[in-house]
Amino acid sequence: MIGDTETIDEFLARHAGDVEEAVRKAAAAEIMPRFRRLAAHEVDQKAGPHDLVTDADRNAELYLTEALAALLPGSVVVGEEAVHANPASYEAIQSDVPVWIVDPVDGTRQFVHGDDGFCTLVALARHGVVHASWTYAPARDQLATAVRGGGAFLGGERLFAGPPAPGRDLTVATSHPYYTTDDQKHALLGLRTDGIAPRACGSAGLEYLAIARGELDATAFSWEAAWDHAAGLLLVEEAGGAHLTVSGEPFRITGGNTLPFTAARDAATARRVTGLLSGTRP
């Protein structure tokens, strides 16, 4: 148990590989056997036709909940599907104990449609600070990891986002209109301008990975669910990128953010995007 005798850094030094193994095993046991083989009874709706959940989501989260809690006694797990069943469990993100933040299948819509653009997201946080993250795209055999202060890596190679090339349009992945309020839709219209090429986002976790790899310039997201953002935001940070809300503050996984917010390849791009979102155009 993490406390006076062990820090999170010490835990990660000993067990980061065990977490990776748990993530891979969850995908191998519960997700990939159902990929492109889902039966109708294995797919349900949560809040409507654009909010899907499958047996792969539920079973992979149960697998990870058991495995991660066993690796770190005294920790708690905040998973997307458990919070859907019991919204009050989300409050554990605010607690003093280590928290595993889990999205078993990020990009469920893609998964259901047989697209390989989905991933499993795991982050380890405490006191609202993300210390480590794992982003695993099993259908693409890609695993990205990040440790605060220790860098971001994909397949063992260090990731550097780097600034966008000057003189070309910035590609920005944005929230789907189904998940935005009228005010947020208005803010996102600020990206409909010269020099910006907005497009709808796919899996949030894979969009963050694309930023860390220097393949996507920025995001503009309008929701706060920590399981979608915690892992990817640390990955972007450790690759040299930045994140900002329209109030000019970094995004907080504990909530209370002014939305929309951006993650970007560098701080200058983050300021440019939030300026457009807020109408100040830096």
UniProtKB/TrEMBL annotation:
Enzyme class at the top of the EC tree: hydrolase
SUPFAM superfamilies in UniProt: Carbohydrate phosphatase (SSF56655)
Catalytic reactions of this protein: a myo-inositol phosphate + H2O = myo-inositol + phosphate
PROSITE patterns on file: IMP_1, IMP_2
Coiled coil stretches, renumbered: none
Domain of life: Bacteria
Record-linked Pfam families: Inositol_P
Documented EC number(s): 3.1.3.25
The keyword Methyltransferase belongs to this UniProt entry's keyword annotation: no
Keywords of the record: Hydrolase, Magnesium, Metal-binding
Name of the protein this chain belongs to: inositol-phosphate phosphatase
